[in-house]
Task: structure prediction
Amino acid sequence: MTVETSRRSFLKFLPLAAVFASIGGAAFRFLRPKLSAATNAWLDVASVSELTGPQPISRKIAAEQITGWAITTEEHNVFVLPAKNNQVVSAICPHEGCEVAWEQNRNRFSCPCHESYFAADGSRISGPAQRGLDPLPARVQDGKLQVQYISKEQATRA
Amino acid sequence: MRSDNSLSAWLQTTTGIVAVLLAVQFLTGVLLAFYYVPSVDHAYTTVSYIEKVVSSGSWIRSLHHYGSQWLTIFVFIHVIRLFLDRAYAANRIQWIVAILLLGLVMAAGGTGYSLPWDARAFFSTRVAEGLMAGLPIAGGMARLWLLGGSEISGVTLSRFFALHVLVIPAVIGAVAVWRMFRAQIVEFLGPRDAIVGALVFLVLALWALKHPAPFGPSVVEAGADYLPRPGAQFLWLYQSLKYIPGGLGSIVGVVLPGIVLAVLVALPWLKRQRLIAGSLLGAGVVLVVIMTTASYLSDRRDPRTAQQFARQAAAEEAWRHQPFNPATITLAATTNVTGGAPVMYTKYCANCHGTQGQGAQQGPLKFPPLLDVSAKPRRSVDDIVSLLKDPAAYGLQPPMRSFSEKLTEEQMREIAEWIVKLRK
Result:
């Protein structure tokens, strides 16, 4: 193939390149991710009166997020720490996002994935996690303990 | 075959137009699949999301919608052009590929209409169902296979989706690749093809900017006066079905086109019957043109129909200006989400029966889950309260023990009321 013919065969596809470029440009806008909006609602965790004793108490909260084409209500595990003035921590391990469990007999939280351990007050003991369990903003309203849900990524950025 | 610098050379660029429009369908289809969900409870919402929220979404969907109609029309013109060029004798593969493409793009359009699951889609699915059911001999079976069951359901939508985005595009791709390998890509598309293909795309792109793809009301919201109309490539069939009684519609809409396509595919080997095949193609062209025109005219002339279309267009326009209405998805247990387990349960029971009643294993000991326990005999709220006081009376063995000294009656009742709500 001479230089002349290869230039011709290149030029010949130029109109087609324009077609694909216009769709490609739109495709980039089309596929661009949309950040989800958290609703920041205060969610009931428990009545303050039932939160007693030295053990962390496991609870579930259902937080709403506007994600893509749906309002998604997702359940999240949290722990209330009555021994630490009813602080509420997320059960999501700050390392890679697995859910920690409370080991009553060893008095610690353990992550089933990569063996991070946390003390009863949520602080880091050992393992690959770089910080303690993430505390959630909490308040008491009409005798109910309430929290706002914060994802691990939000807590990492903060 | 190509003569240079003459009008006929430009008329031969239908290959390029078809190739460009096919590529547009593939690309826009892949993009739509990034958001679309083929389920009866989310299809409508996800298409609305594409139309209202996603950047360029309305344009991409309109390209795909009108592109499918333009593609069918240009494949049709392509077939006529090849017939007039006697391509069936000179280039068998080119001819056969063109006929197969015609059938395949019609099938792609037919299955695609159901996917948005708006009222239009629902009627289109109904018509497809009726056309299958009316087939001679195997009609009942064909209908069941199309629907995936005895009624239109989520299974039907999945079938149309699988055919539309997996099966048919794969066959079209295989046919196109076969065609391209027979003629190398450089010869397959000449410079004129590229220019004309790009021009057609430019017009389609501008059209799609101005005209969003139609989107009817959801199946639930559509009133009894809603008038559905198929896309341009199916108007001939739609109009023909008005004139043909009952099951004969399936003959005209499915069997006859099938026979015509089969005869046309076989045309390269039919030396003597070319006149017959040519007449069939000619009759097909005349039928399609007349019926399509008749369909447009009858909708224009009837004032009540015109009024209803105006109402529907106004409703659709109003819908486009309403904010997007998201679906709700719950990824949470239905029981007692915010309250969780009673504190006394967590304190005394959770170690063995699990924090959510899921059961547990400690060494050799297996503790039974409590999920669905209320379905068992003698496990009402009252039974569970009595059981907590005296497990042996309910046939339970240690390590299950009595809690009558640790828990108050009220606490036991709270635990029992929580346990009976536990579900798998």
Summary: The mean pLDDT of chain A is 87. Chain A touches chain B through 45 residues (CB under 8 Å). Residues 37-157 of chain A form a domain with the Rieske Iron-sulfur Protein fold (CATH 2.102.10.10). Helices of chain A lie at 3-12, 14-31, 152-157.
